[in-house]
Specification:
The complex is a heterodimer.
Chain A lengths: L3 E8 L3 H9 L1 H7 L3 E2 L7 E4 L9 E9 L2 E8 L6 E10 L2 E9 L6 H11 L2 H17 L3
Helix pairs in contact in A: 1-2
Chain B lengths: L3 H10 L1 H12 L4 E2 H8 L3 H13 L3 E6 L2 E6 L2 H32 L1
Antiparallel strand pairs in B: 1-3, 2-3
Helix pairs in contact in B: 1-4, 3-4
Chain lengths: 141, 108
């Protein structure tokens, strides 16, 4: 068991297109979570949502040089600072994304379970609404 | 409380401790320090040290009977970490699927 989650995903789009989607606040708000976000080192961002049960997430941009984006990730109500990093690489026919979320072991024991229970479904709710929005509005166009 | 899960990770980061913990999980009864020592060809002192780290993480319960100590595995603390890991695994999978949909939709 590692104290880290890693994901790799390939997109059939240019590195510039994927970079904009993960670093531009307006685009993040569309597919991820409602965001006050600027890809500038030192910027304090907020992921939030008007929906019930969506716990805000805050953090600081540690690095934002194309095509590496690193920021801290703090769930409201916890003092635990985890780190999320996105690294993009051009590959034939598209872009490869390496996502890493580390520091999860720092979550406090029992508080962790309580927090987990309280926003289990919460975030899904936040993002699923965006998916339906996309399906209705963006895909239709 | 802050360090609880950190201790669990530290305890299971060492391959020998993982092996000892695994042996305790599959053992049908509690194992004494001597039994563990024989099974792993580590000195009693070495086993005692590993067991102490596992005990501090809450992964091993120790029962003292006379001079001997008997160890029993307790996997409950691992469930807490597992819950967090699972939650974020799912969260990132969903999010990256959303990103994929978004990128495809935007350019269609």
């Amino acid at each position: 068991m590692k104290d880290m989650i890693t994901k790799e995903k390939i997109f059939k789009h240019s590195i510039e297109t994927v970079w904009n989607a993960i670093s531009n606040g307006k685009e993040l708000s569309t597919w991820f979570i409602q965001a006050d976000f600027k890809a500038e080192k030192g910027y304090h961002y907020t992921f939030t949502s008007d929906e019930d049960g969506c716990v805000p997430i805050t953090g600081e941009i540690k690095s934002a040089d194309p095509y590496t984006l690193v920021y801290t990730w703090i769930v409201e109500g916890t003092n635990t600072e985890t780190t999320v990093s996105w690294v993009l690489e051009t590959i034939p026919g598209g872009t490869k994304l390496y996502l890493e979320h580390s520091g999860i072991s720092k979550y406090e024991g029992e508080t962790a379970v309580t927090m987990f229970d309280s926003f289990n479904g919460g975030w899904d709710n936040c993002t699923n609404k965006l998916v339906s929005y996309l399906k209705e509005n963006v895909h239709a166009g | 409380m802050q360090d609880k899960i950190t201790r669990i990770f530290k305890a299971i980061a060492d391959p020998t401790r993982r092996d000892i913990f695994h042996a305790l999980v599959i053992a049908s009864s509690t194992l004494s320090i001597s039994q563990i020592s024989n099974q792993f060809e580590i000195t009693r002192q070495g086993v005692t040290k590993h067991i102490k780290t596992l005990e501090e993480a809450g992964l091993v319960d120790i029962e003292r009977k006379g001079r001997e100590r008997f160890c029993n595995a307790n996997a409950t603390p691992l469930k807490e970490i597992n819950k967090w890991m699972k939650f974020y695994e799912q969260f990132w999978d969903n999010s990256l699927d959303n990103l994929d949909d978004y990128l495809d939709g935007k350019l269609s």
